[in-house]
Amino acid sequence: MELQPVMIFGASGLGKVALEIFKSQDILVYCLLDDDKDLHGSEIDEVGILGSTDDDSFIRYVGKKCDAFIALEDPSKRKELIDRLLKKRKAMPVNAVHKAAVVASNAFLGYGNLVNATAVISAGCKVPNHCIINTGAVLEHGVELGDFVQIGANATINANVKIGEGALIGSGSIIAAGIQIGEGAQVAPGSLVLKDVEEGTTVFGSPAQEI
């Protein structure tokens, strides 16, 4: 089945990453949209930034002639735009999975996830919706994420870890096997997590402690 072109909502850092990912899979990017009007009319890698993310003249094509990917940095704005697409177009964003990423055949990926180059999602992992798995991150077997989780570059999430919705795992962190990370928790970059992290808390260090 021929893949539809993609419209990327957001032309900042995450939008540029998504553009490169879709190009790695030879998926046509129709255009980028961004709320910074100074960017309108410019291009990134020969793909035009044509308008704002709330422009219905573009949104009306989603689900009909093209797919969408939400590449906004702010999680709350991402959620707002996802809700708008569901309401207006009954459409969920597609996944952006780099050609150089490794995803096990029996791993589960929902919608709207970004998986960058050299990331590894191992057997039995569950990555639901709108997660960001950055460059070189490793999810060992049986890892389960909630929606809107962000995993930093080169982080290692060992086997059977569970990470709650909206949690942020910093770059280079190591999460020991079987650990549970609560909703909205944050693990600072470079931390070694050896015990469960409660929801809404921030931990840092080796071993990680609440701060």
Q: Can you walk me through this structure?
A:
The mean pLDDT is 95. The longest helix is centred in the middle third of the chain and has 15 residues, at 75-89. Strand 3 (43-44) and strand 4 form a beta hairpin. This protein has 211 residues and is α/β, with parallel strands linked by helices. The strands form 5 sheets. Strands 6-9-12-15-18-21-23-24 form an 8-stranded mixed sheet, covered by helices on one side. Strands 7-10-13-16-19-22 form a 6-stranded parallel sheet, with no helix packed on it. The chain has 3 helices and 24 strands.
What are the defining features of this structure?
29% strand, 24 strands, eight-stranded mixed β-sheet, six-stranded parallel β-sheet, alpha/beta, single chain, 3 helices, 211 residues
Task: Annotate the secondary structure layout.
Blueprint lengths: L5 E4 L3 H12 L4 E5 L9 E2 L2 E5 L4 H4 L7 E4 L4 H15 L6 E2 L4 E2 L4 E2 L4 E2 L4 E2 L4 E2 L4 E2 L4 E2 L4 E2 L4 E2 L4 E2 L4 E2 L4 E2 L4 E2 L4 E2 L4 E2 L4 E2 L8 E4 L2 E3 L1
Parallel strand pairs: 1-2, 1-5, 2-4, 6-9, 7-10, 8-11, 9-12, 10-13, 12-15, 13-16, 14-17, 15-18, 16-19, 17-20, 18-21, 19-22, 21-23
Antiparallel strand pairs: 3-4, 23-24
Percent of residues in helical segments? 10-25%
Biggest beta-sheet profile: 8 strands, mixed
Distance between the termini: 50 Å
- Broad shape: elongated
- Oligomeric state: single chain
Number of helices: 3
Topology order in helix (H) and strand (E) letters: EHEEEHEHEEEEEEEEEEEEEEEEEEE
| Class by alpha and beta content | alpha/beta
Radius of gyration: 17 Å
With strands numbered from the N-terminus, the spatial order across the biggest sheet is: 6-9-12-15-18-21-23-24
Number of strands: 24
β-strand amount:
25-35%
Uncertain runs are none
pLDDT averaged residue by residue: 95
